[in-house]
Structure formats: C-alpha cells, structure tokens
Design a protein that fits this description.
The chain is mainly β. The protein has helices spanning 95-105, 130-137, 204-213, and strands at residues 6-16, 25-27, 29-32, 43-47, 52-54, 61-63, 71-74, 80-83, 89-91, 109-113, 125-129, 154-157, 172-175, 178-187, 216-225, 227-230, 234-237. A hairpin with an 8-residue loop joins strand 1 and strand 2 (25-27). The chain is globular. It starts with 5 loop residues before the first strand and ends with a strand. The model has no long low-confidence stretch (mean pLDDT 93).
Length: 239
C-alpha cells in the first residue's frame, strides 16, 4: 500500500454469480476486468416474453419466482453450471439444463449470454461491510441478517457497527491489484427478503431498512484498474 492510502478493512469473502438472480459461488480470488468480475452475471434466464428473469420487475427484467432456489457455479475450466433445489446439476450450454430451470420456475426458458445490454442492475460490483451487517442485525436480530441476502461480490471486514462504506462514496479503493471507484449506494429490493438455502423468508428486513436508511445497504463500484482480488487483501482508501 502507498504511504498516503488509508486501510479501512480487509477482504473477508469473495462471491460471483454466474447466472443473474441465482445463488452464487464463494471463491478465494476474483479476476476483475473492465466489465467487472470475470463471468459474473454473464448468463441470465430468459422467459418466452423475452424478458430476463430477476428478483424484481423493471423495464428489462421480470420477477421470476424460483430463481434464488437454484445456484450457479463455474468449474475448473471456467464453464458455468446450474444446481437445482434437488441437487441435480447441469452445464449451462446443455439444453436439458434449460428444461431443468424451466421446471423450477414454471415456464419455458432459455439460458442466454450477455449481449449488447448488460445483465447488471446498476454497476459491475457490489460491496458490503461487516460493520453495516452488524448495524442491521442490531435492528432485526430475529431475521437472520446474513450477507447472502444482499448478494455482495465483496464482504469487507471493518470495525464497528455502522454504515461505514457510505463514507467511501466518490472515492477509490485499492484492493490487491485492483482499483475500484465507489459510485453509489445500493438500494435494496424484495430479493433481500426471499428464502434461500437455510435462510427463511424475512419480510421485516426490507421494511426496517427502508425506515432506517431509505432501503440502502452497501455500495456499487466500477473497475478503474484491472487485476486480481484475493481473500485477506487489505482494502484501502486512495488519497
């Protein structure tokens, strides 16, 4: 780290999500290019109406119940796979995998790669601090405030129990060989309340977050300089 940087935390967890709105994969390192994390949300589920499946409905996306009950991961060759709630797995490029997904969501679907339009909602990367999670946990301890509900790419271990990353807005972070620009606050949606894995349905989380911080938790970032981020890397604010 340079003499003028200020270490604000360390990388505690790294996640990528090969298929939009499905469960993700925890890794020990992530390669970041100009688009963001390699392979992150590169694939999406497309319904017969042409809209992409998501946890919420917007101009480009449509809420598609059941997506979060599945998980996506990449193998050692970089090929994406999908795991169904029953544990069955299929390669993303196998037609039978689309049928497997369709059976879960209740409609015919196709699995599509990103084209001219990004699969990201607002920005390539999403960061959440452990301090923010503790801040929220103090308000909704019974609702299993778990980082998986917020689908971060990076969980940054920080001291305290407050919204520390909001102080990074408009600044740059140096993490390993990567420089990130912190561009905005993350506004949460109904996806944070949905059941997944061992986490139950928790509708109170979103309501409390709306009252306490206008539904915002975590920050969005873009890649300024490309490189690799690894577990335990220092997270430092650039001057």
């Amino acid at each position: 780290m340079g003499a003028m940087t200020c270490v604000v935390g360390r990388v505690a967890e790294l996640w990528h999500y090969p298929v939009k709105s499905m469960g993700g994969q925890q890794l020990t390192e992530l390669r970041c290019g100009s688009r963001g994390i390699d392979g992150d949300r590169w694939w999406a589920v497309r319904g017969a109406d042409g809209k992409l499946g998501s946890g919420k409905t917007s101009r480009r996306f449509r809420r598609m119940p059941g997506l979060l009950s599945m998980a996506a991961f990449t193998d050692d060759h970089g090929v994406a796979w999908i795991r169904s709630p029953g544990g069955e797995s299929g390669r993303i490029d196998d037609l039978m995998t689309a049928a497997l997904v369709g059976a879960v969501v209740g409609e015919d679907v196709t699995l599509v790669e990103e084209g001219e339009m990004s699969h990201f909602d607002d920005a390539p990367l999403h960061l959440v601090s452990s301090a923010s999670l503790r801040w929220l946990e103090a308000r909704r301890p019974a609702d299993q405030v778990d980082r998986r509900r917020f689908r971060p790419n990076l969980v940054v271990e920080c001291e305290g129990a407050d919204l520390v990353e909001e102080g990074w807005l408009g600044r740059q972070l140096q993490i390993g060989g990567v420089t990130l620009a912190i561009e905005g606050l993350t506004e949460r949606c109904v996806m944070t309340t949905l059941a997944q894995d061992d986490l139950g349905f928790a509708p109170a989380i979103l309501g409390d977050l709306h009252k306490a911080n206008e539904s915002r938790l975590g920050v969005y970032a873009s890649v300024v300089s490309e490189g690799t981020i690894r577990l335990e890397d220092d997270v430092a604010l650039c001057p």
